[in-house]
Design brief:
This protein is of the alpha+beta class. Helix content is 24%, strand content 38%.
């Protein structure tokens, strides 16, 4: 094998980037392999990160990271047929440093975190699929990637593949996840002028809100809808347990469209333009 590293990390989401960054700071040589065009290009989440765990990795990260808004207001809506029972919490302390949480867009945030890892010495290669793990007996000693010079050796391999953990299952470390422990989530980025966002959600400049919706948001199926405020867009989505969707014969996109058309939700989105659509599986049970 031509190249050898102390550590190979598969997957450049936040967990993979955190592992690579931490190891590089500790003096290890690190190779980070990402199948997407860039970190964040294939990663999906609702859109909120919390300060305390993130600050352990990059102190006062919000002063340089591409965060969208600092969250000061959190609400839960119990949707009925055309109605909503609401419960919310808002505090001025959440609008002051050190903040509690932030809304982010992964395509921006993950690229920023990847830059931090590279600055620490991580070698990042993108648009590359790890096809298999290499073993010496029962010990993993590297990976095989789908490009020239495909075998790369290492002392340790960390798999940060996410829910579709093909290599983890191939290595016999994980069985197939049952449908009742998986959720399917769909999400849209809806562009809306920032002044409208701040007016409709009763926010001051730079402040953000999170809104969770249950009940009619998923037509009674176990799951949740959400609306998170970005600078000049809204992250709007819904997720539900895969097994329940199958039993009900429901389509997640249909749930999202129904939630968006709910009378209490529609007024928040009025005049917005859908810019992105994405979907992802989420592990919901066990490790």
């Amino acid at each position: 094998m031509a190249e050898k590293f102390d550590l190979i990390v598969v997957g450049a989401g936040p967990s993979g980037l955190a592992a690579g960054l931490t190891a590089a700071r500790g003096g290890l040589s690190v190779l980070l392999v990402e199948r997407g065009d860039f970190p964040g290009s294939k990663n999906v989440m609702g859109g909120v990160i919390y300060r305390q765990p993130t600050e352990r990795l990059v102190p006062q990260f919000w002063k340089e990271a591409p965060v969208e808004r600092r969250v000061v207001k959190s609400s839960l809506w119990l949707l009925g047929n055309g109605s909503a029972v609401t419960l919310g919490f808002q505090s001025r302390r959440r609008a002051e440093e050190p903040y509690e949480s932030f809304t982010v867009l992964r395509a921006k945030f993950d690229r920023w975190l990847a830059k931090k890892a590279i600055e620490a010495g991580v070698l990042l290669i993108t648009e590359t699929v790890v096809e298999d793990l290499l073993f010496d007996g029962e010990r993993c000693v590297g990976v095989r990637v789908g490009r020239a010079g495909g075998e790369v050796s290492s002392e340790l391999v960390i798999l940060a593949e996410g829910v579709n953990s093909l290599l983890t299952r191939k290595a016999g470390l994980q069985s197939d996840i049952p449908a009742e422990q998986l959720a399917t989530a769909v999400k849209e980025i809806i562009a809306l002028p920032r002044e409208k966002i701040e007016d409709r959600f009763n926010l001051e400049e730079g402040e953000g809100a999170t809104l969770e919706l249950v009940g009619e948001a998923t037509r009674g199926i176990q799951g949740v809808g959400f609306i998170y405020t970005n600078r000049d867009s809204l992250s709007v989505g819904v997720g539900a347990i895969l097994s329940d969707l199958a039993v009900q014969g429901a389509n997640p996109n249909e749930l999202l469209e129904a939630m968006k058309s709910h009378p209490q939700v529609r007024r928040l989105l009025a005049g917005g333009e859908t810019k992105e659509y994405m979907a992802h599986m989420i592990p919901e049970g066990g490790y």
